[in-house]
Write the structure tokens for this entry.
Amino acid sequence: MPAHSRATRGAAAFSGLIAGGVFFLVGWAAAALLDPPAAPHAALGAAVVDLTPAWLKDFAISTFGTADKVALAVCLALVSAALAAGIGVLAARRASLGVLAVGLLAAVCALAGATRADTSSWAVLPSVLGAVAGVGTLQLLLRRADTGGEGLDRRRFLAAVGGVTAGSALVAGAGGLLSRARSNTETVRAEIALPEPTDPVDPIPAGAQLEVAGMPEFVTPNGEFYRIDTAFVLPQVNPQEWQLQVHGLVDREVVLTFDELLDSALVEAHVTLTCVSNTVGGDLVGNATWIGLPVREVLARAGVQDEADMVLSRSADGFTASTPLEALTDDRNALLAVAMNGAPLPVEHGFPVRMVVPGLYGYVSATKWVTELKVTRFADDQGYWTTRGWDARGPIKTACRIDVPRSGAKPSAGSVTVAGTAWAQHRGIDRVQVQLDEGPWLDAELAATPGVDTWRQWSLTLADVPAGRHAVRCRAWDPTGVQTATTAAPAPNGSSGYHVISLDVR
């Protein structure tokens, strides 16, 4: 490439865009062969997730909900496109600066990949190969875009773009084949025959599901269950290669394979999970029927030492959670779960094995793709989110939500049925009350429940509601008393306050 290209600014920017696409595409294809988590886009996205401060995480989840990863991917694509276009313009002015800029981008992606817990010694190569291809593409296109002092020869330039596009299509096809060949997780998952639990759970009692239009299902379908985690790209874990290592403050280390886990005495349990980022009245909560091995049994095999008070669980992608030891050794159904609602865990929910711990927010307990349990102390170790300012123990706060009607609804004057969901995992819901405007608190009717570890539905018909704008609020009680009315944001230990909706009664 000449030291100074006379390509038009538009052609130079377009050349940069194409070269940037080639960089990420070749890097992805190389990673599919060598080390999938080290793909430049995956490594860069994971690094951004790790570096995101708590306040920005809360903003992303409150704004985009479970689509937070999609929103991040779109933002990264837009930023990368702008950066690539700028590199093209820079390279047209001075070739060495363009090469340097591509090299810096590759270095950032390579460093992000090399420092991931789930990458290998090949982690740097995808970014390096992508950079070589990107620089070569940029040189080719800028040479073809060089006007030589005359107007841009569009035919010559577009022919070069067409050649690059055709080559990229071949790379994409090869990368897709390699990716499917390496990652057969869904195929393996579909072939798993789940054993019958040794300790099956009692059926969900009749009446647990209210017959009120608009109410959520008592058991959340797998496809609708919320997903909030730090994985920009889902880990692909082969169950035949999966192992759980138990170590730390134990009398003996234990290594458990997936087959050994399936051959164990498995327990079935109904458990509601809640994300600490759930705002008051939010939907980052779901209830499922899980099958798994109680964590306390695995810890008993290892022999927990007296000074321990915490278990640091680790995911295949490096995420860690700090779980109070007592929550894993008492009588609650804290599980190494292998099944969700009668099927092997979906990949996005932790296949092949995840943790499920009633009564604790997911960020300190619900480790997906779990591979390690380190028995330790809070004084010595911290989990992923604890280092970012969140509470280390994460007990779930008692909460109540109005599901029907939705805020802003316009019911007719007279009787108005209000219904919703309340939860206080591992304590249970004893009472729910509803208030219209500043009137008295009225007791709602509670639906049946299979136990204290699940949410509970409730309903109340308000009589003689006059036309006009009204506020309706709810509150729940557990055996220790009423939930707090104090309003708090999710950080650092969960949101609180009464859920309030507005009605425009006609």
